[in-house]
Amino acid sequence: MTSAAYRLAAARLRREHHRDARRGATPAARVRRALAEWRRRARSRAQLARFGERDLRDIGLTPAEAAMECAKPFWVG
Q: Rounded distance, CA 65 to CA 13, Å?
């Protein structure tokens, strides 16, 4: 992930944290949201792993980039 992507991810996490604080989100709600996000990431990466070279080219990824994304654990954004 590039440093720009890390900055964008960090900014997104800050926005989510502030949104939760404003809404008074409970710890249980934050856990449910995190679990849902982890499931989404796991499904997305599993689907990406099944793509062929042509499919990857259509979405602008190289096989190496796709392999790097698929190798990430589900809890890493």
A: 23
